[in-house]
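Supplementary notes for students who missed Thursday's class. We covered one full example, reproduced here. Read the sequence, then the structure, then the short commentary at the end.
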Amino acid sequence: MAYDASDPRAALAAPASAPKAVTGPFTPAHYAKFYETAPQEEAEGVRTWYARGRNFIVAYSEVQPGAVFARDDQPDEYVLMLPDRGMEADITAGAETRTVEGYSLAFIPPGASRIVIRAAGRIVRLFTPRSTDLAERCSNAAGFVADDPRIPPLQDWPTPPDGFRIRSYTLDVPPEPGRFGKIWRCTTFMVNYLEPAAGPRDLTKLSPHHHDDFEQCSLILDGAYTHHIRWPWTTNMNHWQADEHEYCRGPSVTVIPPPSIHTSRAEEAGQMVDIFCPPRMDFSLKPGWVLNAADYPMKGG
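Structure (token representation):
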């Protein structure tokens, strides 16, 4: 890991055990540039693009008032993001209905649920591939037919002590020294709504790092970023891959696989969201980083 001293991640604890020897072959990165492609769904005031990683599905939608998103038999908890101020949505799950304002995040229980949009804008929904009907719609579904031995099978984190219910959180949280972004978690996902980039990132303060056993999803909502990705060299040159320096605008999704070394540089003012499924333990262990830690128990107690 290589973090600038000003980056809160520089204080993350080192792995408890020695890393495994790195061998290939390696899983490639995926880039889904929604602004360059037609949506996978388009009907009744809704345009939706789908892309996935090993454990997650991102559904990005442009919506009009009255649009409805229903799940009749959702197998697990999922996420709704309303990134635009001025948005509004009614969420019903079981006997509970809540109105959620724009610039917020909501976790929706498994089972039957319904989202009704009250104002035009954008929404993002996050699912696991247990939602098989959505997994098959993803533009990059063919890239995840084979397993990646580095990524363990998906296991949910503990259910809240008071059970599943609709939980919503405003994204309007001021930055705090020593805290990295704005992080929430549920039983299936961890969402880090990063501080918006005010302009190009300082070239002397990038953050090349890697993950041993999980993917990172970087969702760009606005602006433009370049994702720099490098794979390890092993003794088998057949497994070597060229460095990638992929320029992505919003909206787009980048899936960064382990154990690639990666960092992203804002090229202009913009907003990026990092998504992990399941939640990250290292972020969860940092006091004060997970803003709703009181609602969702940590794995392992």
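Commentary. Helices lie at 132-135, 281-284. The chain has a mean pLDDT of 95. If anything here is unclear, bring it to office hours.
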